[in-house]
C-alpha cells in the first residue's frame, strides 16, 4: 500500500545558507575568486565564492563559465570604474539579501546592479527609488496644501476685520455729532411737549 507524499520544507534554510556563506566570505574560507575594483586611483580586492557570484550576477556567471583555465587557486576578476564602497555594498547584498546605504547612493547601486546584471539588486533599488519619489511628491503636495490654507485663513479674517472697522467708523461718524440735539431726552422741559396738554384744555373750555 503506497503512502501519500509529504513536503518537507524549511523556511529558515535559505536564510541560514546565506548567513553561513557570508561568514565564510568574511573569514576568507573556501573563497575561490578575487575581485579587484579600481576607481580614480582607489583600488581594493575582495575575495568571494564563484557559486554565489554566478548565482546572483549574470556578469560573473558569464565570466566564470567562459574562463578557459584557472590562473591559480583563485580566479582574478578586474572591474574598472566601480567604486570600492559600492562593490562592498554589492557583495553584502548578494550574500545577505540586504544592505544599508545612503539615499544619494541608491542611484549608484542601481548602476552597479545593471553593470553586473544583478536582477535582485536592480529591482530592489528601483522599488526604493519609487518609494522615495512618492514620499517626496507627497511632502510637496502636503506643503502646497498647507501653504494655500494658510494664505486663505490669513486673507479672509483681515478682509472681514477691515470691513467691520470701516462700517463701525461710518456709524460712529454718523451718530456722534447729531445725537445730542435730536435726542428727545436732551430737549429742554419748556419745549413743545408740555404745550400739548394746555392746547387740549383750551379746546375743552
TrEMBL record:
Single annotated GO MF: RNA polymerase II cis-regulatory region sequence-specific DNA binding
Residue ranges of every copy of the BTB domain listed in the record: 31-103
Pfam family, any one: BTB
CDD domains reported in the protein's UniProt record: BTB_POZ_ZBTB23_GZF1
Chain residue ranges for the region called Disordered: 145-205
Bias (Low complexity) ranges: 158-170
InterPro entries registered for this protein in UniProt: BTB/POZ_dom, SKP1/BTB/POZ_sf, ZnFinger_BTB_dom_contain
PANTHER family recorded: AGAP004733-PA (PTHR46105), ZINC FINGER PROTEIN 37-LIKE (PTHR46105:SF28)
Protein's UniProt name: GZF1 protein
Lineage: Eukaryota, Metazoa, Chordata, Craniata, Vertebrata
Amino acid at each position: 500500500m503506497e503512502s501519500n507524499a509529504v513536503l518537507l520544507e524549511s523556511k529558515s534554510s535559505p536564510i541560514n545558507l546565506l548567513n553561513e556563506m557570508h561568514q565564510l566570505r568574511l573569514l576568507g574560507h573556501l573563497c575561490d575568486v578575487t575581485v579587484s575594483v579600481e576607481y580614480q586611483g582607489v583600488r581594493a580586492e575582495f575575495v568571494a565564492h564563484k557559486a554565489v557570484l554566478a548565482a546572483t550576477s549574470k556578469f560573473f556567471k558569464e565570466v566564470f563559465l567562459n574562463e578557459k583555465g584557472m590562473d591559480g587557486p583563485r580566479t582574478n576578476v578586474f572591474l574598472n570604474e566601480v567604486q570600492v564602497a559600492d562593490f562592498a555594498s554589492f557583495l553584502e547584498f548578494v550574500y545577505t539579501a540586504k544592505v544599508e546605504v545612503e539615499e544619494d547612493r541608491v542611484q549608484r547601486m542601481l548602476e552597479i546592479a545593471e553593470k553586473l546584471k544583478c536582477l535582485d539588486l536592480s529591482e530592489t533599488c528601483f522599488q526604493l527609488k519609487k518609494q522615495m519619489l512618492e514620499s517626496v511628491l507627497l511632502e510637496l503636495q502636503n506643503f502646497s496644501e498647507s501653504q494655500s490654507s494658510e494664505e486663505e485663513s490669513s486673507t479672509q479674517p483681515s478682509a472681514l476685520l477691515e470691513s467691520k472697522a470701516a462700517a463701525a467708523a461710518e456709524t460712529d461718524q454718523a451718530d456722534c455729532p447729531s445725537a445730542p440735539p435730536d435726542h428727545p431726552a436732551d430737549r429742554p422741559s419748556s419745549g413743545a411737549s408740555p404745550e400739548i396738554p394746555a392746547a387740549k384744555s383750551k379746546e375743552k373750555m
